[in-house]
Design a protein that fits this description.
single chain; about 450 residues; mainly alpha; Vanadium-containing Chloroperoxidase, domain 2; 2 domains; three-stranded mixed beta sheet; 15 helices; 5 strands
Amino acid sequence: MGQYTSIPIIRSIIYILLPLILVSLFSCNPQFPPPNNQDPTLLHRLNIQLSEAIVQDGFSPPVASRIYAYTNIAAYESLQHTDTLYQSLATQLNQLPPINPPLPQTHSQIAMVQAFKEVAITLIYRDFIIENLANAILDSLKAQTTQSIYRASISFGSSIAQVINQWAAQDYYKESRNLPLFTPSPEAGKWQPTPPTYSEAIEPYWNRIRPFLLDSASQFMPPAPIPFSTQAQSPFYLLAQQVYDTTNALSEEKVAIARFWDCNPVSAQTQGHLMYVKRQLTPGGHWMGITTTITKQLHKPLLPTAEAYTRTAIALADAFISCWDEKYRSNLIRPETYINQHIDKAWKPILQTPMFPEHTSGHSVASNAAATILTQLFGNNIAYIDSVNVPFGLPPRSFTSFQQAAEEASISRLYGGIHYMPAIQEGIIQGQKVGQLINRKLITHKKP
């Protein structure tokens, strides 16, 4: 099961804002494709609903990436046997065992929906969000095929889910739920909880989670941060000064960029004496939404769409494992803490500072890993409009390539006032290395 992000708010009234992203749109009078149709609509709907569940449950970025990976691996494994040019991820991903082939005349979309559903409901809390949609889809498909094919397809989907769920149960996630809370170090230059909630650090043991394709969490360890110093004009002081000066001179466009890529899944907002919680997509959820956008725009059929979701999700999951390994090794102080102590005690960042150490930038690592995957799949000059955040009140933005989007996501952390430049620069390199590894090692589509 997942874990809620804990946000202790003392003497405050908490209003939970749960955005209703397309729930009614996908649950009322659904129109589903006929049997054996290669229309990817069902997989798009399942992933959009999964993002809705993740938002409502308030999962942290690392946990969300894990959920996207296991569910989409299950979907891909339900479909890959339908085309001889595609192959299973079994024995390619770390410790994933072989998966038995389906019986003859299995309906692949029924199996896909069943596998996705069974894996998803073991990983989220509000499982009805997925289960209601999946059951409506299955009821529709059941009426379009024979009883024997339907039963065989459900059985095949369940068998895949059983393999994936057993595999997921061995990745150390469950054990990490019972480890002690992170204790901030009193040493100068180390991370400290930040306003307004001063919450405990998120996922300090994430580097113990089994990677999907990385050899280890530390495979792409970045250089150590610049040595900490409070001396004026020291290299570290100048990094903090850069954050301070940048945020104090932002154009409207740069503020818009910071807010567009915020992707803080649970942030505390204040109105007078009241405090409430705002929920939105994680960085991984944003890039999964981009994957939806681009596969729709390019009219990709079902199996290539499943491939894109799965490769992107695996890249995101390994990116967070790699990034979190460095975060709790360097355990670096955030700009907000440093600037308040040594430059301007009244300064506040544009974005709420996330509740984990600074180096490297998680959005930089994740965005560049995902962009590297999508560029390999679809090319380096695909223009698109990113409207993923429209349901959260943010206008769409246009991009000429995935790399341009990843670069903008990365620099948004400086504009937002939550990262020093080395965390962004090294995060970009770290994320690209994760994506390049997956492009090189993970074989989904074999050349004819």
